[in-house]
Amino acid sequence: MHRSDRLYGIHPVLEALRSAERHIDGIYLQQGRQGREIDEIVRLAKTKGISVDFRPREALDRLTGSAHHQGVVGIVAGKVYASLDDLIARVAEKEHALLLLLDGIEDPHNLGAILRTAEAAAVDGVIIPERRAVGLTATVAKASAGAIEHLPLARVVNLSHTIERLKNENFWIYALDVKGDKNFLHVDYRGAVALVIGSEGRGVRPLVAQHCDGRINIPMMGRVSSLNASVAAGILLYEVLRQRASTIHSSPPEPNETFFDSRLQ
Fold first, then answer.
1. Beta strands in the chain (DSSP E)
2. What is the pLDDT of residue 38?
3. Is the dihedral of CA 231, 234, 240, 242 positive or negative?
4. Inter-residue contact 231 to 160 (CB < 8 Å)
5. How far is CA 174 from CA 32, 210, 258, in A?
Protein backbone atom coordinates (compact mmCIF):
# COMPACT_ATOMS: atom_id res chain seq x y z
CA MET A 1 0.00 0.00 0.00
CA HIS A 2 1.56 3.29 -1.02
CA ARG A 3 1.33 6.50 0.99
CA SER A 4 -0.91 9.08 -0.67
CA ASP A 5 -0.25 12.78 -0.94
CA ARG A 6 -1.99 15.79 -2.41
CA LEU A 7 -0.30 17.48 -5.32
CA TYR A 8 -1.82 20.71 -6.56
CA GLY A 9 -1.28 23.22 -9.33
CA ILE A 10 -1.49 22.78 -13.11
CA HIS A 11 2.19 22.12 -13.86
CA PRO A 12 2.93 19.77 -10.93
CA VAL A 13 -0.08 17.59 -11.79
CA LEU A 14 0.75 17.63 -15.51
CA GLU A 15 4.33 16.53 -14.85
CA ALA A 16 3.14 13.81 -12.47
CA LEU A 17 0.87 12.51 -15.23
CA ARG A 18 3.77 12.52 -17.68
CA SER A 19 6.10 10.74 -15.25
CA ALA A 20 6.37 6.97 -15.37
CA GLU A 21 7.49 6.87 -11.73
CA ARG A 22 4.37 8.28 -10.02
CA HIS A 23 1.18 6.38 -9.27
CA ILE A 24 -1.85 8.69 -9.43
CA ASP A 25 -5.04 7.60 -7.67
CA GLY A 26 -7.31 10.36 -8.92
CA ILE A 27 -7.60 13.98 -10.04
CA TYR A 28 -9.98 16.69 -8.87
CA LEU A 29 -10.69 19.68 -11.11
CA GLN A 30 -12.54 22.85 -10.25
CA GLN A 31 -15.99 23.02 -11.77
CA GLY A 32 -16.07 25.37 -14.74
CA ARG A 33 -12.27 25.45 -15.12
CA GLN A 34 -11.26 25.36 -18.79
CA GLY A 35 -8.18 25.80 -20.94
CA ARG A 36 -5.61 23.97 -23.03
CA GLU A 37 -3.70 22.65 -20.02
CA ILE A 38 -6.87 21.44 -18.32
CA ASP A 39 -7.80 19.60 -21.53
CA GLU A 40 -4.33 18.01 -21.54
CA ILE A 41 -4.74 16.87 -17.93
CA VAL A 42 -8.09 15.27 -18.77
CA ARG A 43 -6.63 13.62 -21.89
CA LEU A 44 -3.62 12.17 -20.07
CA ALA A 45 -5.77 10.97 -17.18
CA LYS A 46 -8.15 9.23 -19.59
CA THR A 47 -5.21 7.58 -21.38
CA LYS A 48 -3.94 6.21 -18.07
CA GLY A 49 -7.35 5.22 -16.76
CA ILE A 50 -7.27 7.75 -13.92
CA SER A 51 -10.56 9.08 -12.62
CA VAL A 52 -11.28 12.81 -12.94
CA ASP A 53 -13.83 14.40 -10.62
CA PHE A 54 -15.10 17.98 -10.93
CA ARG A 55 -15.76 19.76 -7.63
CA PRO A 56 -16.54 23.30 -6.42
CA ARG A 57 -13.58 25.56 -5.68
CA GLU A 58 -14.40 25.52 -1.97
CA ALA A 59 -13.98 21.74 -1.89
CA LEU A 60 -10.51 22.01 -3.43
CA ASP A 61 -9.62 24.74 -0.94
CA ARG A 62 -10.47 22.35 1.91
CA LEU A 63 -8.71 19.44 0.24
CA THR A 64 -5.41 21.31 -0.12
CA GLY A 65 -5.64 23.77 2.76
CA SER A 66 -4.77 26.45 0.24
CA ALA A 67 -6.45 28.79 -2.21
CA HIS A 68 -3.53 28.54 -4.66
CA HIS A 69 -4.29 25.18 -6.27
CA GLN A 70 -5.22 26.66 -9.70
CA GLY A 71 -8.27 24.44 -9.76
CA VAL A 72 -6.23 21.22 -10.07
CA VAL A 73 -5.51 18.62 -7.37
CA GLY A 74 -3.98 15.19 -7.81
CA ILE A 75 -4.01 12.38 -5.26
CA VAL A 76 -0.67 10.70 -5.86
CA ALA A 77 1.74 8.30 -4.27
CA GLY A 78 4.25 10.20 -2.17
CA LYS A 79 7.48 11.08 -3.98
CA VAL A 80 10.00 8.36 -3.23
CA TYR A 81 13.51 9.49 -2.29
CA ALA A 82 16.44 7.80 -3.96
CA SER A 83 19.16 6.32 -1.78
CA LEU A 84 22.64 7.82 -1.90
CA ASP A 85 23.89 4.53 -3.34
CA ASP A 86 21.30 4.70 -6.13
CA LEU A 87 22.22 8.30 -6.90
CA ILE A 88 25.93 7.50 -7.12
CA ALA A 89 25.19 4.47 -9.31
CA ARG A 90 23.19 6.67 -11.70
CA VAL A 91 26.19 8.92 -12.37
CA ALA A 92 28.98 6.34 -12.09
CA GLU A 93 29.61 6.22 -15.83
CA LYS A 94 29.19 9.95 -16.48
CA GLU A 95 32.32 11.93 -17.23
CA HIS A 96 30.79 15.23 -16.13
CA ALA A 97 28.43 14.30 -13.30
CA LEU A 98 26.83 17.20 -11.44
CA LEU A 99 25.21 16.90 -8.02
CA LEU A 100 23.68 19.57 -5.82
CA LEU A 101 23.77 19.37 -2.00
CA LEU A 102 21.42 21.65 -0.06
CA ASP A 103 22.31 22.46 3.53
CA GLY A 104 19.43 23.61 5.68
CA ILE A 105 16.96 25.01 3.12
CA GLU A 106 13.82 25.43 5.22
CA ASP A 107 11.61 27.56 2.95
CA PRO A 108 9.55 25.26 0.68
CA HIS A 109 9.23 27.94 -2.01
CA ASN A 110 13.00 28.39 -2.04
CA LEU A 111 13.57 24.65 -2.29
CA GLY A 112 11.03 24.36 -5.10
CA ALA A 113 12.69 27.19 -7.03
CA ILE A 114 16.13 25.59 -6.61
CA LEU A 115 14.84 22.22 -7.84
CA ARG A 116 13.22 23.87 -10.86
CA THR A 117 16.52 25.51 -11.82
CA ALA A 118 18.49 22.34 -11.08
CA GLU A 119 16.34 20.29 -13.42
CA ALA A 120 16.61 22.95 -16.13
CA ALA A 121 20.40 23.02 -15.73
CA ALA A 122 20.75 19.23 -16.16
CA VAL A 123 21.74 18.48 -12.57
CA ASP A 124 22.00 14.70 -12.13
CA GLY A 125 20.63 14.62 -8.61
CA VAL A 126 19.98 16.62 -5.45
CA ILE A 127 20.88 15.64 -1.89
CA ILE A 128 19.13 17.12 1.15
CA PRO A 129 19.54 16.40 4.88
CA GLU A 130 16.87 14.64 6.91
CA ARG A 131 16.92 17.20 9.74
CA ARG A 132 16.57 20.98 9.86
CA ALA A 133 15.48 21.14 6.23
CA VAL A 134 12.20 21.05 4.35
CA GLY A 135 11.29 17.84 2.54
CA LEU A 136 9.26 17.22 -0.59
CA THR A 137 5.95 18.77 0.39
CA ALA A 138 3.09 19.70 -1.94
CA THR A 139 4.22 23.34 -1.70
CA VAL A 140 7.71 22.36 -2.84
CA ALA A 141 6.27 20.36 -5.72
CA LYS A 142 4.15 23.30 -6.86
CA ALA A 143 7.03 25.78 -6.55
CA SER A 144 9.22 23.44 -8.62
CA ALA A 145 6.65 23.54 -11.47
CA GLY A 146 6.83 19.75 -11.69
CA ALA A 147 10.64 19.50 -11.74
CA ILE A 148 10.63 17.00 -8.87
CA GLU A 149 9.06 14.44 -11.20
CA HIS A 150 12.23 14.36 -13.32
CA LEU A 151 14.99 14.99 -10.76
CA PRO A 152 16.36 12.24 -8.46
CA LEU A 153 16.50 13.35 -4.83
CA ALA A 154 18.25 11.62 -1.97
CA ARG A 155 17.80 12.37 1.72
CA VAL A 156 20.76 11.67 4.00
CA VAL A 157 21.43 11.71 7.72
CA ASN A 158 24.78 13.49 7.60
CA LEU A 159 25.95 15.86 4.83
CA SER A 160 29.57 15.84 6.00
CA HIS A 161 29.76 12.06 5.71
CA THR A 162 28.05 12.29 2.33
CA ILE A 163 30.68 14.75 1.10
CA GLU A 164 33.48 12.39 2.16
CA ARG A 165 31.71 9.55 0.34
CA LEU A 166 31.49 11.66 -2.83
CA LYS A 167 35.18 12.53 -2.58
CA ASN A 168 35.93 8.80 -2.57
CA GLU A 169 33.92 8.62 -5.79
CA ASN A 170 36.24 11.26 -7.33
CA PHE A 171 33.90 14.23 -7.02
CA TRP A 172 35.27 17.73 -6.41
CA ILE A 173 33.12 19.48 -3.81
CA TYR A 174 32.63 23.27 -3.66
CA ALA A 175 30.63 25.17 -1.05
CA LEU A 176 29.05 28.44 -2.08
CA ASP A 177 29.91 30.79 0.78
CA VAL A 178 29.63 34.57 0.97
CA LYS A 179 33.00 34.45 2.79
CA GLY A 180 34.55 32.06 0.29
CA ASP A 181 38.11 32.83 -0.75
CA LYS A 182 37.69 32.10 -4.48
CA ASN A 183 35.54 33.81 -7.11
CA PHE A 184 33.09 31.26 -8.55
CA LEU A 185 34.22 32.23 -12.08
CA HIS A 186 37.77 31.09 -11.36
CA VAL A 187 36.91 27.42 -10.76
CA ASP A 188 36.97 24.58 -13.31
CA TYR A 189 33.66 22.66 -13.11
CA ARG A 190 34.23 20.30 -16.03
CA GLY A 191 34.82 17.10 -14.07
CA ALA A 192 32.59 15.28 -11.60
CA VAL A 193 31.42 18.12 -9.34
CA ALA A 194 29.11 18.49 -6.35
CA LEU A 195 28.02 21.97 -5.28
CA VAL A 196 26.85 22.80 -1.76
CA ILE A 197 24.29 25.58 -1.27
CA GLY A 198 23.33 26.75 2.21
CA SER A 199 20.30 28.50 3.61
CA GLU A 200 19.80 32.24 3.46
CA GLY A 201 21.39 34.07 6.36
CA ARG A 202 23.23 31.11 7.86
CA GLY A 203 24.72 29.78 4.61
CA VAL A 204 26.62 26.51 4.54
CA ARG A 205 27.38 25.35 8.08
CA PRO A 206 31.11 25.55 8.98
CA LEU A 207 31.23 21.85 9.85
CA VAL A 208 29.92 21.01 6.37
CA ALA A 209 32.06 23.59 4.55
CA GLN A 210 35.30 22.35 6.09
CA HIS A 211 34.84 18.98 4.37
CA CYS A 212 34.63 20.63 0.93
CA ASP A 213 37.55 21.04 -1.45
CA GLY A 214 36.98 24.77 -1.66
CA ARG A 215 34.72 27.67 -0.71
CA ILE A 216 33.63 29.89 -3.56
CA ASN A 217 31.80 33.20 -3.61
CA ILE A 218 29.65 35.21 -6.00
CA PRO A 219 30.94 38.83 -6.02
CA MET A 220 28.42 41.34 -4.69
CA MET A 221 28.60 44.69 -6.48
CA GLY A 222 25.84 46.56 -4.68
CA ARG A 223 24.99 47.27 -1.07
CA VAL A 224 23.24 44.01 -0.17
CA SER A 225 25.52 41.37 1.29
CA SER A 226 24.01 38.18 -0.11
CA LEU A 227 21.64 36.65 -2.66
CA ASN A 228 18.55 34.55 -2.29
CA ALA A 229 19.65 30.90 -2.19
CA SER A 230 17.69 29.96 -5.31
CA VAL A 231 19.11 32.91 -7.27
CA ALA A 232 22.65 32.06 -6.17
CA ALA A 233 22.12 28.43 -7.17
CA GLY A 234 20.93 29.51 -10.60
CA ILE A 235 23.93 31.77 -11.22
CA LEU A 236 26.36 29.04 -10.20
CA LEU A 237 24.67 26.22 -12.11
CA TYR A 238 24.60 28.16 -15.35
CA GLU A 239 28.30 28.96 -15.06
CA VAL A 240 28.82 25.19 -14.84
CA LEU A 241 26.68 24.76 -17.98
CA ARG A 242 28.61 27.52 -19.76
CA GLN A 243 31.91 25.81 -19.13
CA ARG A 244 30.69 22.35 -20.06
CA ALA A 245 28.98 23.48 -23.25
CA SER A 246 32.20 25.18 -24.32
CA THR A 247 34.19 21.96 -24.00
CA ILE A 248 32.26 20.34 -26.85
CA HIS A 249 34.48 22.07 -29.41
CA SER A 250 37.14 23.84 -27.38
CA SER A 251 38.34 24.76 -23.91
CA PRO A 252 35.98 27.11 -22.04
CA PRO A 253 36.47 30.81 -22.68
CA GLU A 254 38.12 32.74 -19.89
CA PRO A 255 35.68 34.80 -17.79
CA ASN A 256 35.99 38.56 -17.86
CA GLU A 257 37.91 38.84 -14.60
CA THR A 258 38.97 42.45 -15.08
CA PHE A 259 35.53 43.83 -14.27
CA PHE A 260 35.17 41.81 -11.09
CA ASP A 261 38.72 42.40 -9.92
CA SER A 262 38.48 46.17 -10.38
CA ARG A 263 35.21 46.36 -8.46
CA LEU A 264 36.46 44.20 -5.60
CA GLN A 265 39.74 46.00 -4.92
1. 4-8, 24-30, 51-55, 72-77, 98-103, 125-129, 153-156, 172-176, 182-183, 193-198, 214-217
2. 94
3. negative
4. no
5. 50, 10, 23
Q: Is the pLDDT of residue 126 over 70?
A: yes
Distance separating alpha carbons of residues 171 and 155, to the nearest angstrom: 18
- Residue type, position 105, single letter: I
Rounded CA-CA distance 98/190 in Å is 9
CA distance 145 to 116: 7
Q: Which residue has the higher pLDDT, 66 or 46?
A: 46
Asked if residue 33 lies in contact with residue 27, where contact means CB atoms within 8 angstroms, the answer is: no
Residue 247 CB neighbours (<10 A): 12
Instruction: Please say if the pLDDT value at position 139 is more than 80.
Output: no
Res. 88 pLDDT band, cuts 50 70 90: very high
What fold does the segment set 4-77 form as a domain? 60s Ribosomal Protein L30; Chain: A; (3.30.1330)
70: left (phi over 0), alpha (psi -120 to 50) or beta: left
Q: What CATH number was assigned to the domain covering residues 84-258?
A: 3.40.1280.10
User: What residue spans define the domains of the chain?
Assistant: 4-77, 84-258
Cα 48 to Cα 1, 22, 41, 131, 142, distances in angstroms: 20, 12, 11, 36, 22
| Spatial distance between the Cα atoms of 87 and 100, rounded to a whole number of angstroms | 11
Quick one: average pLDDT of 203-212?
93
What separation in angstroms does the CA of 239 have from each of 40, 52, 214?
A: 35, 43, 17
